Amino acid sequence: MTTMVTVSQYLSYFKDRRLINIFAFGISSGFPWVLIGSVMSAWLKDEGLSRSMIGLFGIVFVCYSINFLWSPLVDRVKLPLLHKRLGQRRSWILLSQVCILFATLWLSQVDIQNQLYSVALCCFVIALAGATQDIAIDAFRIDTLDENETHKTTAAATMATSGWWTGYALLGAMPFYIADLPSWQWTHVYFVLAIVMLTLMLGVFFAKEPKSNREYVHKALEAEFIQNDSSLTKRIGAWLWVTVAAPIQSFFSRNGVKTALALLAFIFLFKIGEAFLGRMSIVFYKEIGFSNSQIATYSKLGTGLITIVFAFLGSLFNSRYGIVKGLFISGIAMAASNLMFSLIAMVGPKESLYAMAILVDGFTQAWSLVAMVAFISMLCDRAFSATHYALLASLGNLGRTLLSGSSGYLVDYLEGNWALFFLITALMVIPSLVFLYVIKDRLMALETDFYKKQ
Questions:
Q1: Where would you find the membrane-spanning parts of this chain (predicted)?
Q2: Degrees to nearest 5, angle at CA 72 with 71 and 74
Q3: Which end of the chain, N or C, is less packed with Cβ atoms under 10 Å?
Q4: Under 8 Å between Cβ of 402 and 65
């Protein structure tokens, strides 16, 4: 076993004030998904857009899948004015949040019937800024813990997960309640959401920039590349090498080529089925007959609260029995969750069944997110934390985003057979579990090596 942490030891980790900052940034990380995900899907549905068109709007989430392409810039580029006052991580977080704020205000002013392209552009800006914000926030979380504090990794993952679901689900419930109020339009809802975004931006000023030896490592690598040639061409080449190539070389050299490829494949496959469900869930709820208020109560508030509770339990399990075992449990629960929604499709809008499905889904979300966040974090080299985490996390989003964009077409192809749709999404979990079993020994060895640092 990697580490046998007692309950009292585990709970003592949460006395660390740095974890509050991680929680606050987790809220900011989850909130953009409300703006361009569930709320946007509900708005488009109420405006009469087809399932296929609503599914296509999900393509903007591809920004989260490819943010590794510009993550080296977040590691290396110092923003004028902001960097000196806030530091590398917080300055990028604030810039991203400002972009999200203005795009949200723009959405509060549009006529969706006549300005659909403008709405799509706003969604793209929010997705791009949100994906950039995630790069900086994830790096902030990894950098916040010292090298000898690896035992707190799952606790940090718990706070990040709880924060994300607070932003996505608990704050995400609010617009659905507001939308059911007399005379309230979705544009009014987005104005309220812009105010929420402005409030979340205050978290940047309360957080403390983490210390890191990142710049020292980067300069040493550049000096090694330049050697005795200090020409402009060589200096540019050194900067590009350390920014783009060195992080990739570091990841493969730390893990070995075969293991690195195996890790990338598993991360890519793990949550594809869940992504199909997530993209069409709001459309399904509305078609099956649930109201906006019911969606807010169960899918937002219910899922959020349940996820936060199970996040702490899942984190304790991962601390005691290992992250890999936690991934196995969450994968099985993922398939069970999708089958519960298949049952709802056959039975109809029965609230008790809806509540049970949300309970299982909340458990799934909590365990899978905590395990995956902690798992990816332990694979990162701190000298390239933004680049490494973005590479791995975006790979996990890649399959989910690209394929989930076709989820509406799949429902249409099945002629609205939601029960069969959710059954298919449950079966999508199997390949990743098989792959996880094949590489489990190597993954457990990596986990053991990671915890030896504490």
A1: 20-43, 49-70, 91-110, 116-136, 156-177, 189-207, 260-285, 297-317, 326-347, 353-377, 389-411, 417-439
A2: 65
A3: N
A4: yes
